[in-house]
């Protein structure tokens, strides 16, 4: 049961739920409701005193979904190069679990959303929201990921068309959603790759297949979540709008 729920799981006044979720004070929450800025299960609510079940209701304020369960954790981690995407490593190698150890030690059962190989750095989502994580990783929801790759050689313009049309790998065809060349210097190219594929080493394999092996790879975006200037090895809590955007991307 969430903090917002009644002692017996009974429905709770909407303004009380909003206040306990940290949206606004109870009085300010009443004003939000009166102005038609609050939706419950897809319908605007303007009346005071409406009660809902916080365990099942989908509540949005100005279109942003409000997560009512205060035990849920949503983190954006900048995984450094050389770290393995596991919460613990039996060989004692550096891993993601080391970077969030304080939260795990405090009793939070966290897991990573998808994987980055040890030599790839950048954005990795960490949460304890199992349903959201499952959907974000499921290919049917087509949540895009953006990578910056430094590759060997001068990438020709034809590579864009080739990758967007698709190439055949050992485990089947694959293609990118977007591809662009950002810079060319000293026989290397910096390229941007956007795709929703989730197969192992997919970016490295695609670029190697078209003749440009990856020398360095960074994931800079996962859906609506951007890495920005976050330092390697650090994590931050996702904002309410960011969490809402992830929910929306997978139909929750």
Automatic annotation (TrEMBL):
Protein name as it appears in the record: Pseudouridine synthase
Domain RNA-binding S4: 12-72
PROSITE patterns linked to this entry: PSI_RSU (PS01149), S4 (PS50889)
SMART domains to which the protein is assigned, alphabetical: S4
Source organism of this protein record: Dietzia maris
Coiled-coil residue spans: none
Listed InterPro entries: PsdUridine_synth_cat_dom_sf (IPR020103), PsdUridine_synth_RsuA/RluA (IPR006145), PsdUridine_synth_RsuA/RluB/E/F (IPR000748), PsdUridine_synth_RsuA/RluB_CS (IPR018496), RsuA_PseudoU_synthase (IPR050343), S4_RNA-bd (IPR002942), S4_RNA-bd_sf (IPR036986)
Pfam families named among the record's database cross-references: PseudoU_synth_2, S4
Source domain of life: Bacteria
UniProt record similarity statement: Belongs to the pseudouridine synthase RsuA family.
Record carries keyword RNA-binding: yes
Gene3D superfamilies in alphabetical order: Pseudouridine synthase, RNA-binding S4 domain
SUPFAM superfamilies in alphabetical order: Alpha-L RNA-binding motif, Pseudouridine synthase
Keyword annotations from UniProtKB, A to Z: Isomerase, RNA-binding
MF term (GO), any: isomerase activity
EC number: 5.4.99.-
